[in-house]
Amino acid sequence: MTTTAAPQRHPDPERLAAAQAVLDDLPSAWARSTFTVHDPATEEMIAAVPDASVEQALDAVAQADEAGRQWAGSPLRARADVLRSWYERLLESGEELALLITHEMGKPLAEARAEVAYGADFVRWYSEEAVRPHGDSRDLPAGGAQLLTRRSPVGLSVLITPWNFPLAMATRKIAPALAAGCPVIIKPAALTPLTTILAVELARQAGVPEGLVKVVTTSSASAFSEAVLRDPRVRKVSFTGSTSVGSALMRLAADNVLRSSMELGGNAPLLVFDDADLDRAVNGAFAAKMRNGGQSCIAANRMFVQDGIADAFLEGLTEKMSALVVGNGLNDGIGMGPLIDDRAVATMSRLVADATARGAIVETGGVEFDGAGHFFAPTVLSNVPNDAEVAQTEIFGPIAAVQRFRDEDEALALANATELGLAGYVFTESLDRALNVADRLETGIVGINQGVPSNAAAPFGGIKQSGLGREGSAEGLEEYQNIRFYNIARRATR
Ligand code: NAD
């Protein structure tokens, strides 16, 4: 077994000062009470943000509803221009955003910068999509009338986002909502509200009208959703987070028959066939597993490797995982930051203990690091039995759990034996096999010979219990549009 060096906890002093300067410049909102935000690498408090009451949340609904009336009737080009300007500001303030992401969420600065590029890209995409045709004309087969289809904004949209991609999960929802003509209330995760506050401030500076995008920070998520989703002015809820919270929100949304988009949990299978290119498979699996320290909904959760390539794959993956430098993401050269909280670290330890008790072998890692910060070593488990908890639940952390398979049918049966269906990965040099396996994988997203499939141009989303609806691409805009038709009687002219 190889071991990982102890984490570098202490941040680079210059970077820390820069991150604190960004915080000092955030718009300070008056608040009767506040809750605190902590750096997961040091556990030190970094900010106190307003803890909105239900009354304040409903006041935000009123303001957004008011601002939304004008926006719904605004020219498409005006919406596009504001979004473009917001995109440019996100890039101009890219370093500040990246510092905040790392400071409140923990991912290494290089990954935070990549999130800024990815998150801003949704704003650029929807600035371009906003002016695309919003309707069409169709002929009735029997004649005598013509159909005109129109798209109207769905209305006031409540957006609820998780902590793992605090910028991208927000822009992926706000940008299409604004392009479609909707006002929004956004509630970021209480663990990571600061990036959203800064991103929305940049939207305001870019010309988004006052009140149109309201950030509500609160430590009482359920009181917020109970009140806001029952408000008759609200027409839509878009949620990214766990399947259990998503299904509870769908029950709540049912009362007012709210349009609902749900981006929920994943349990991604990653299949490596004997005919895969070994380097591609190792690098792809590493990327699919370790983006954000494994705290990604499309993270490779279960790795199934064919017998003939399994030893070489394990060796390559173990080498890469054990070489990762763990530490405070504000420092240079860090490959993996802390996990989000203590609970996540305890979950990793429990999963490793359960798997090893059932016969799994720790190839590297498997240990927590004592002291401040929520650090867990990058871990590879081999010989994982399929009934181990790590092979059944969403890990959401830096454990690669590797199982072996004999043939395609066995691999697919294992891969599809889950109620979740967000992403899957296939590594093979055979085009036929890649496409056949992708077709049989029960997931909304398939990475073929690569580990990072997301893109603003792609219709991101899951099937089965991984969710409803799509984000990104043209389909992402439809989530915020009502499709209507006018049936226009036509007199025959000839
Ligand atoms: P979570 O479900 O605990 O929280 C997500 C958000 O919901 C947070 O803002 C939280 O405050 C809020 N929330 C919690 N209970 C609520 C309630 N009763 N009413 C209203 N809001 C409530 O998830 P998390 O731990 O922040 O994120 C991890 C989960 O998110 C994982 O399961 C992951 O797979 C999933 N995820 C999915 C996607 C996707 O696109 N499918 C993307 C990122 C994360």
TrEMBL record:
Q: Which GO terms describe its biological process?
A: gamma-aminobutyric acid catabolic process
**Active-site residues, as the UniProt record annotates them:** 263
Q: Where is the Aldehyde dehydrogenase domain?
A: 33-484
Check the record and name the Gene3D superfamilies matching this protein: Aldehyde Dehydrogenase, Chain A, domain 1, Aldehyde Dehydrogenase, Chain A, domain 2
Does the UniProt entry include the keyword Acetylation? no
| One function term, GO molecular function aspect | succinate-semialdehyde dehydrogenase (NAD+) activity
Alphabetical keyword list:
Oxidoreductase
Write down the InterPro entries for this protein, in alphabetical order: Ald_DH/histidinol_DH, Ald_DH_C, Ald_DH_CS_GLU, Ald_DH_N, Aldehyde_DH_dom, Aldehyde_DH_Superfamily
**Family membership:** Belongs to the aldehyde dehydrogenase family.
Name this polypeptide is given? NAD-dependent succinate-semialdehyde dehydrogenase
Tell me the name of the encoding gene: gabD3
